[in-house]
Design a protein that fits this description.
elongated, 2 domains, six-stranded mixed beta sheet, alpha/beta, about 350 residues, formyl-coa transferase, domain 3, three-stranded antiparallel beta sheet, single chain, Rossmann fold
Length: about 350
């Protein structure tokens, strides 16, 4: 949920803000990352939020991740596997960020976040609805100190499932790899693995029948439209499943090549990272973490033709940048920072 009229990827003060980014083409000088100069205040935890803010960091934004003193993001303890003392889960979605440890239950901690919001362009959060408002950090409170702030709240959204219920009273159920409203559109076991076949229209269904050598299915009156195939899902899927078991995945992929039907193997993780396309596109990033040492994570999900992502900074330690942000972003004096550390409103890790 985006609570502003401004674009989420464009600083609303772009015409007046001296630290905002500028675009350059690949031939127009040094490469500048698209979000260079944009400051993002990151109040997210776990997966969806941190992944979203990591993408903004990949694109050049300054991302200030706010964590609880002591425990930090919940995913720091989600393991094994761990790399040193860091969970692989946390390492996977938190590169290119600064970490500050702030106690949001402490009045001085709330004041720090309010002051950071005043000098930020974007705030992203995934708290329970209403929780930040109770702390004095909701959209209404923070927009009062920074009317141009883009305030983004992340929550789960399953639009087509919601629409099915709201318009047809149809309760959701588990479908595995299958699609509730399209048949066949799912994974099938082959002789040596799995393949996904997605016949999104009647023409593609006819082609599936031809490729698998079951052309008579295309003319069966129970399967001539998608609506009929959904109604007779069980018997159709049973027939197709039996056929797919008769050959290897690679054989099926060759048969479907050029057919116009979306198909693909279900790869193991080892298969994914052994794929020549993954290697060619440089989708694995390597970096050195201050305590975990050398680590590898999947690279940026968004690519631009006009710039290449630079060397990433590793996921931060809890509160690794607390003092730095207070000093350089909010201009706090050394005495004030010492007082905040002493009263527990903030915390600083040993690595700076």
């Amino acid at each position: 949920m985006l609570k502003t009229c401004a674009s989420v990827l464009l600083c609303p003060r772009a015409l007046t803000c001296t630290r905002c980014f500028s675009f350059r083409t690949a031939t127009g000088g040094d490469s500048v990352r698209p979000l260079e100069g944009v400051r993002v205040l990151d109040l997210t935890r776990v997966l969806a939020g941190p992944f979203a803010t990591m993408i903004l960091g990949d694109l050049g934004a300054e991302v200030i991740k706010v964590e609880r003193p002591g425990a930090g993001d919940d995913t720091r303890s989600w393991g094994p596997p761990f790399v040193g003392t860091e969970s692989a889960y946390f390492l996977s979605v938190n590169r290119n960020k600064k970490s500050i440890a702030v106690d949001l239950k402490h009045p001085k901690g709330v004041r720090i976040i309010t002051e950071l919001a005043a000098v930020s362009d974007v705030l992203v959060e995934n708290y329970l609805p209403g929780k930040l408002e109770q702390m004095g950090l909701g959209f209404t409170q923070l927009s009062a100190v920074n009317p141009a702030l883009i305030y983004c709240s992340i929550s789960a959204c399953l639009t087509h499932i919601a629409a099915n219920y709201l318009n047809a009273g149809k309760e959701a159920r588990r479908w595995g790899t299958a699609h509730q409203s399209i048949v066949p559109y799912q994974g099938f076991k082959t002789r040596d693995g799995y393949i996904v076949v997605a016949a999104g229209n009647d023409k593609q269904f006819v082609k599936v029948c031809q490729v698998v050598g079951l052309g008579e299915l295309a003319h069966d009156p129970e399967y001539t439209t998608n609506q009929l195939r959904v109604q007779h899902r069980t018997q159709l899927i049973d027939t197709l499943s039996t056929r797919f078991l008769e050959e290897n995945t690679s054989d099926w992929l060759r048969r479907f090549e050029g057919s116009g039907v979306p198909v693909g193997p279900i790869n193991s993780i080892q298969d994914v990272f052994s794929d020549t396309q993954v290697k060619h596109n440089g989708l694995i990033q390597e970096m050195t973490h201050p305590t975990a040492g050398p680590i590898s994570v999947p690279g940026p999900a968004v690519r631009y033709s006009s710039f290449q992502p630079g060397g990433p900074t590793p996921p931060p330690l809890i509160g690794q940048h607390t003092t730095q942000v207070l000093r350089h972003t909010l201009s706090y004096t050394a005495d004030v920072i010492r007082e905040l550390l002493a009263c527990g409103a903030v915390a600083q890790s040993g690595e700076i």
